[in-house]
TrEMBL record, chain A:
Coiled coil: none annotated. It comes from the Eukaryota. InterPro entries: SKP1, SKP1-like, SKP1-like_dim_sf, SKP1/BTB/POZ_sf, Skp1_comp_dimer, Skp1_comp_POZ. Residues 166-201 are annotated as: Disordered. SMART domains: Skp1 (SM00512). This is Skp1-related protein. Probable essential component of SCF (SKP1-CUL1-F-box protein) E3 ubiquitin-protein ligase complexes, which mediate the ubiquitination and subsequent proteasomal degradation of target proteins. Regulates cell proliferation during embryonic and larval development.
Automatic annotation (TrEMBL), chain B:
PROSITE patterns: FBOX. Residues 4-53 form the F-box domain. This is F-box domain-containing protein. InterPro entries: DUF38/FTH_CAE_spp, F-box_dom, FB224. One of its GO terms (biological process) is innate immune response. Pfam families: F-box (PF00646), FTH (PF01827).
């Protein structure tokens, strides 16, 4: 899909500019375009620096191609920008590690993150990549909260983590896929051991 | 972002943020998920980010409450005929041939080691003296417990603990021992509850000489008549911006000096002094009775003189 034909997604209908505000255009890696207010962009340190360095005028943002964000897909980026628009103008928390980081998830964020785990993990990645401190905090807290009251077996299921046995089997499978001869050698070695041979060679 | 996103595919720095927010008990359970996760938790310099740690010692049990945000985990270590009974919510496990205090201190060591950020509140309640036959035994248990506490290192192997507020319910001696373990650079408030101090000496002078005492900004002391700060010049308390304290005897001259220092201190907020004896001819404002909370949260009426500034 060409950039010209890409659908333009307004993140927040109510946020359509009535005054002369600058709305930047961004494009996800699957060619979805978003318009995001200047104030909302400030929540992302990465994007804020980028737009500052570009020094676009209001004509530039309309006439020049949308700014490409190559590592993030449209579905995730939509959530990111919805979050930024909702929290625009809010102070960005500074974490110097001196006080315990106590994160509480506001109602809007809880609703926004009512998504499948795969998308939630992508959101964490995106928040980290775009350096959106508070979005990273709340999305990590959401994942952390899933562990509440769970047994190790339940945690494996919730987080799709392998047990030691599964991990070992996966490693063996990966090794075999790389070197199909490895299993044959191992079997041959076991066979010789059974036959009482002292040395493989 | 080529891989299917999951906790297993998360970069370590993001995994660390998630794990740190999971709370103490969840972190312990995550250790048991697999060896890779156990190694990650042990090798990463995690910050448990605890807001409050509360320790309550009873004769044959000790409870540890770890609070992170709104959530708190309560673990009780109880003496058991076979070893130690560990109680976490409705779950009860018996660990054989292990002393309950050894197990408790092993856990506390891990907590203190992995608490990088400042603990908002550290609350330590020692055994209260009961019947006269038991006094010696309780004193011995409290002394032993405080000695073991003093062996606890702070984060990154530091000698002292980073605590913003410390609350001790115990004798003067025990308070002094615990207070001396706190890093004065982080300490803001001292709370000291002492309703029993019959066997211990009243070493108020030694407490107020501690650097921790001098660096704290707020003080709250609730003590019985006999256990209050005796024969101390109240001007020694003038550096506290906010305080509520009982002192056995105050003089008019000391109170005037104190008020003068408060006027000169732009950070002064409030001060409440409870005293038993007043030495001076000038009348001062007082309220005859007040309701105070004892260490069990019950309201008790105390009748004594009460001087409030401002």
């Amino acid at each position: 899909m060409s950039v010209e034909n890409a659908p333009v997604v307004d993140v927040d209908e109510a946020a359509i500019p009535v005054e002369k505000k600058m709305y930047y255009r961004f494009e996800s890696n699957d060619k979805k375009e978003f318009r995001v207010s200047e104030l909302a962009i400030q929540q992302s340190e990465t994007l804020n620096r980028l737009v500052e360095a570009m020094g676009y005028t209001s004509e530039d943002v309309e006439n020049k191609p949308a700014i490409a964000i190559e590592n993030i897909d449209g579905k995730t980026l939509k959530l990111v920008f919805q979050w930024c628009e909702h929290h625009k103008g809010e102070a960005i928390p500074v974490d110097d590690g001196s006080v315990p980081k106590i994160v509480e998830i506001p109602e809007f964020d809880a609703k926004l993150m009512d998504i499948d785990n795969g998308l939630l993990f992508k959101l964490i990645w995106a928040a980290d990549y775009l350096n959106i401190v508070q979005l990273l905090n709340v999305s990590c807290k959401k994942v952390a909260n899933m562990a509440q009251g769970k047994t190790p077996a339940q945690l494996r299921r919730v987080y799709l983590l392998p047990s030691d046995e599964e991990d070992e089997a996966a490693k063996r499978a990966a090794q075999e896929a790389q070197d199909p001869r490895a299993r044959e050698v191992e079997e041959e070695f076991e066979e010789r051991k059974r036959q009482g041979g002292n040395s493989f060679f | 972002m080529g891989e299917r996103p999951s906790l297993a595919t998360m970069p370590n720095e993001l995994l660390k943020i998630i794990v740190e927010q999971a709370g103490y008990m969840s972190i312990q359970r995550l250790r048991l998920v697999n060896h890779a996760f156990q190694e990650f938790i042990e090798d990463s310099k995690l910050d448990y980010s605890l807001k409050e740690i509360s320790i309550q010692l009873l004769f044959n049990q000790v409870s540890l409450t770890l609070k992170q945000g709104k959530d708190s985990d309560v673990i009780v270590y109880k003496q058991h005929e076979q070893g130690t009974e560990i109680q976490i919510g409705s779950l009860r496990v018996v660990k054989k041939e292990v002393n309950f205090l050894d197990l408790f201190f092993c856990v506390l060591k891990d907590v203190f080691k992995n608490q990088i950020s400042t603990i908002g509140k550290l609350n330590i309640e020692l055994i209260r003296e009961w019947g006269s036959d038991w006094k010696e035994r309780f004193l011995h248990a409290n002394n032993y417990f405080v000695k073991r506490l003093q062996e606890m290192e702070g984060p990154e192997g530091q000698d002292q603990w980073r605590v913003s507020m410390i609350r001790v319910a115990g004798s003067h001696d025990h308070t002094k021992g615990i207070l001396s373990m706190v890093d004065p650079n982080y300490l803001n408030r001292i709370e000291f509850v002492c309703n029993w101090n019959r066997l211990n000496r009243n070493n108020s002078e030694e407490i107020i000489d501690l650097v921790q005492w001098k660096s704290a900004k707020e003080l709250y002391c609730l003590m019985g008549y006999c256990q209050g700060f005796r024969r101390l010049d109240v001007t020694k308390f003038s550096h506290f911006e906010k305080m509520e304290v009982n002192i056995t005897t105050v003089t008019a001259n000391e109170l005037h000096q104190l008020i003068k220092s408060y006027i000169e201190n732009p950070n002064f907020k409030s001060s409440v002094i409870l005293y038993k004896n007043y030495q001076g001819d000038e009348p001062i404002d007082y309220i005859r009775a007040r309701m105070a909370q004892n260490r069990y949260g019950q309201l008790e009426e105390e009748v004594e003189n009460y001087y409030r500034i401002p």
